[in-house]
Design a protein that fits this description.
mainly beta, four-stranded mixed sheet, 44% strand, Immunoglobulin-like
């Protein structure tokens, strides 16, 4: 599966995601910009490990609207968030009984904007 597959989906409403947490099981909420809506973002525990994916969707709630991918039922471990098939976007630690958050980097590492900032 391509780390950046896109799907057309509608928004989700309050209460549409249920997370079971406890023991060595946690969850991840990946906050994303709106332009990633419909994209599947992959995660894995290492570069060679099997990957799992979740779809970035518009999430509507009492505090407003945002975009996120939700990864329920993750065993406690360090995870790589994949920008594409071979490029990590970052890492996150999942701890049992908790929900971790990761904010998607807005600018790709080799984009023009990134090169301009490093000069």
């Amino acid at each position: 599966m391509d780390a950046s597959s896109r799907h057309d989906t509608g928004p989700t409403g309050p209460g549409s995601v249920i997370l079971e947490l406890g023991g060595d099981i946690g969850a991840l909420i990946l906050e994303a910009p709106p332009d990633l809506a419909g994209r599947e973002i992959e995660i894995s525990t290492s570069e060679r490990a099997a990957r799992t994916h979740s779809l970035v969707r518009e999430r509507r709630g009492g505090a407003g609207t945002g975009h996120a991918a939700v990864y329920p039922g993750l065993p406690a471990a360090d995870y790589i968030i994949w920008r594409d098939d071979g490029t990590p976007a970052g890492t996150v630690t999942i701890r049992g009984g908790t929900v971790a958050r990761f904010r998607w980097p807005e600018v790709a590492p080799d984009s023009e904007a990134s090169r301009q900032r490093s000069v």
